[in-house]
Amino acid sequence: MGSGLIVLIVVVVIAVLLILWFLATYNSLISMRNYVKNAWAQIDVQLKRRHDLIPNLVETVKGYAKHESGTFEAVTKARTSAMQANGVDAKAKAEGELSGVLSRLMMVAEAYPELKANQNFMQLQEELTSTENKISFARQAYNDQVMHYNTRVQIIPANIVAGIGGFTAMDLFELKDVAQREAPQVKF
Fewer Cβ atoms within 10 Å of its own Cβ: the N or the C terminal residue of the chain? Predict the structure, then answer.
């Protein structure tokens, strides 16, 4: 065997290994991106559940607190904005505002002892509390997936494949306002 043939074999082996590495890294990035999309879909499911609960909650409170129309309108407006928000940052901002007005609605409800004793209201409270917890867990899972994905996209040498494949860092689901980080209080 000539030295030229050995060099050719080494070059071919290195090229094959590089191609295999590229493909494995590319497939890994696609898989991670799909995990992020799935985690976002889980947040969306819980937010939809939250949005579906709100009209029932508002109607129940309305029956007892008829003169609180400003609060009801704010909740309805915030719910509509949250449902129409697109993108992680816009969704986080709108959901934070919705949490704020839901807290105001719960404060209105505190002023009505007969409302606090209403079975329908108590059930809605429990469902909202459960949903808020699920949203919190879904946000955490989403942010964990985004962190793993972003790390992979940014580290060397995977960032080379990410750049070629058009993979870019994704946004975390963060609430910018500290007051918005608190879930609406639904305890009575």
Answer: N
CA distances from 4 to 11, 14, 155 (A): 11, 15, 36
Extents of the domains making up the chain:
3-181
> H or E stretch including 151?
helix 119-154
CA distances, 42 to each of 46, 62, 73, 131, 168 (Å): 6, 31, 28, 12, 21
Nearest C-alpha neighbor of 115 from the set 182, 74, 68, 76? 68
| Least reliable range by pLDDT among 3-7, 46-50, 106-110 | 106-110
Q: What is the gyration radius of the CA atoms in the chain, in angstroms?
A: 25
pTM to 2 decimal places: 0.79
Q: How many residues does the chain have?
A: 188
Cβ–Cβ under 8 Å, residues 180 and 97: yes
Q: Average pLDDT, whole number, for the chain?
A: 88
Among residues of the chain, what percentage have pLDDT more than 70?
A: 92
Q: Tell me the HSE value of 129 on the side-chain side, using a 13 A CA sphere.
A: 11
